[in-house]
Amino acid sequence: MPRVPGVRGRLKDIPVPGHKRVLLAAPRGYCAGVDRAVIAVEKALEHYGAPVYVRKQIVHNIHVVTQLEQQGAIFVDEVDEVPEGAHIVFSAHGVSPAVVNAASDRGLHAIDATCPLVTKVHREAVRFARDDYEILLIGHEGHEEVEGTAGEAPDHVTLVNSPDDVANIEVRDPDKVVWLSQTTLSVDETMETVRRLREKFPKLADPPSDDICYATQNRQVAIKKVAQDADLVIVVGSANSSNSVRLVEVALEYGAKAAYRVDYASEVEQEWLDGVATVGVTSGASVPEELVKELLDALADAGYGEVSEVKTAEEDLMFSLPKELRRDLAGNRDARALGGRGRSAP
After folding, report:
1. pTM to 2 decimals?
2. How many other CB atoms are found less than 10 A from the CB of residue 126?
3. pLDDT in tens, 82-139
4. Pairing verdict, β 87-90 and 109-112
5. Which helix (H) or strand (E) holds 12?
6. Where would I find the beta strands (DSSP E) of 175-294?
7. pLDDT (tens digit, 9 = 90+) per residue, 189-200?
8. Is 306 a catalytic residue?
9. Residue from 134, 145, 152, 315 carrying the catalytic annotation
């Protein structure tokens, strides 16, 4: 899909009861894992030249994917679509050992851009499977992250899609059961699923640390605070971005009168603003800040020029790039070896 810029002046400034304003959630947008993954593809293109292949979308954002395609990245569904001997990047969502082996069998030069927080969950799955635990993996069926984690221990993993699934879950040994989760879920819904699982399996073990990533949690906390005072919440993010979709759900649950997800500012409908004094704005963890800026510009055209940031946390975490990409073409340590681009900004 081509780049879809915001269209200035498309939204009209129509009077509403009350004072028009925007509450801008922070943190929002790019997290450290996304930053790392996107830079990994850019640097692979610098190092090896186009094309560089990427299995699945590197992150779940149509704008980011389109930009990388324009630079020479080719996105494929499976490794058998990649010419033998080519360079391939594994997405931030992670892959199963079967995918790693398939890439090796084709002689591909693989660069693993899996988010380290997803890798942590993979390691937990391996460890608990080795100890013969049955793993109840809370997550969404078909999501790439879930497929990768389950692939680490397919004989030990049972997927739990939602709290309502718990009633139908059966295990071999209720004394050796542990739960793990996809990193981008709703915190509240996940904890409700765990509560029901523990009622059914009192000896249910916990992962050694929280699986839902810091960025997912922080963005949900921020939008909860914004939603309490918002007539409308707009979330910038793509439809296949689990954490972006969850932000819409959380906003509605915590008081927003309406909430919508858009990829671009041009998708905002005039009627969404009817009678709206306060608009809450946030973005998913794979969304570059430029798309939020376009949305704020479009809202300013409609009279929402006053922007107040609602900050609930500071984020300064950075992840090292994959080892193959930590030096520039001259062999010197690259200034971007720790990622670090894409911090949220007002």
Report:
1. 0.92
2. 15
3. 999 999 999 999 999 999 999 999 999 999 999 999 999 999 999 999 999 999 999 9
4. parallel
5. none
6. 177-181, 232-236, 259-262, 278-283
7. 999 999 999 999
8. no
9. 145
